[in-house]
Amino acid sequence: MHDLNVLKEKLVECASRFDSDELFPALVPEALELVLADPYAFAIAACLDRGMKADVIWTLPYYIKSHLGHLDPHRIHQMSSQEIADVFAALPRRPRFVNDAPKTLADLTHIVVEECEGNAANLWIGKSALEAKHTFMRIHGVGNGIANMTVLLIEKAFPIRFDDADRRTMDIKPDVHTRRVLYRLGVAHANDDHAAIDAARRVSPDYPGAIDGGLWFIGRTWCSESNPLCSECCVSSLCERRGVIESR
Ligand code: SF4
Predict the structure, then answer these.
(1) How many angstroms does the Cα of residue 185 sit away from the middle of ligand 1?
(2) Phi, psi angle pair for 69, to nearest 5°
(3) In a structure prediction context, what are the per-residue pLDDT tens digits for the chain, which is 248 residues long?
(4) Which domain covers residue 88, as residue numbers?
(5) If you take atom 5 of ligand 1, which residue's CA is the nearest one?
(6) Is the CB of 210 under 6 A from ligand 1?
(7) Domain count, the chain
(8) Are residues 158 and 184 in the same domain?
(9) Does 185 sit in the ligand 1 pocket, CB within 6 Å?
């Protein structure tokens, strides 16, 4: 069985290999600039991250801003549900759950305007990681996984660091990559959300989210569903390759 400390070190080291362009892939450079400069744009993309390619998700705020001519939460708060739905319908690329997206944007905007003085950074400034996570989970369509991811990414996108005492509460986001890699490594007993979160807590109990980026990077780079490139993978020497039939 693994030395979990060695595995954790390796996964954290893997996470350091990619930069913000990979964390926040976007279809055009202006979209990346927007989500890294505007906390409201960041929050919109994070809350809509459901079942779509990441580069489209992180470009959606740019498309919305281009269509409206602004990304002002006060003005969006004044829009009707139908007007917001019409915006999504007019975008060059739409969220996968296009019928849910207007409610997600409306809920987020309501919280930003009514509780954060119109400044989306107040969703997390002066809050614990758990408080920020629970605020995001009040938004339509934002579940535990997206909220976990959002809290982890806030620290990557903006100059803020949650208190060290919060880190035990900062879990990974279970997705196709993190679930599969933890299962194949042999630390998750099943390829599902619950087992992945539990495994990450055992590997990195003081800060489970610390290994999220490394798992994601490994999943995207080497550990594809079929034909994983195990010989090139950075955790090859530590992996049980559970359920893997290597073809190369
Ligand atoms: S060694 Fe292979 S199975 Fe294990 S994590 Fe890497 S690519 Fe996946």
Answers:
(1) 7
(2) 85, 5
(3) 568 999 999 999 887 776 666 778 889 999 999 999 999 999 999 999 887 888 999 999 999 999 999 999 999 999 999 999 999 999 999 888 888 999 999 999 999 999 999 999 999 999 999 999 999 999 999 998 899 999 999 998 999 999 988 899 999 989 999 999 999 999 999 999 999 999 999 999 999 999 998 998 899 899 999 999 999 999 999 999 998 876 54
(4) 38-162
(5) 181
(6) no
(7) 2
(8) no
(9) yes
The reply to whether 63 and 14 lie within a common domain is: no
From the CB of 182, is ligand 1 less than 6 Å away?
no
Domain boundary among 162, 185, 217: 162
Assigned domain for 57 exists: yes
Of 30, 14, 15, 53, the residue nearest 155 (C-alpha):
15
222-226, long-range: CB within 8 Å, 24+ apart, which pairs? 223/177, 223/180, 223/181, 223/184, 225/176, 225/180
**Residue 149 corresponds to which tokens in the numbers above?**
């991811």
Length of the chain: 248
Tell me how far the alpha carbon of residue 235 lies from the centroid of ligand 1, in angstroms.
7
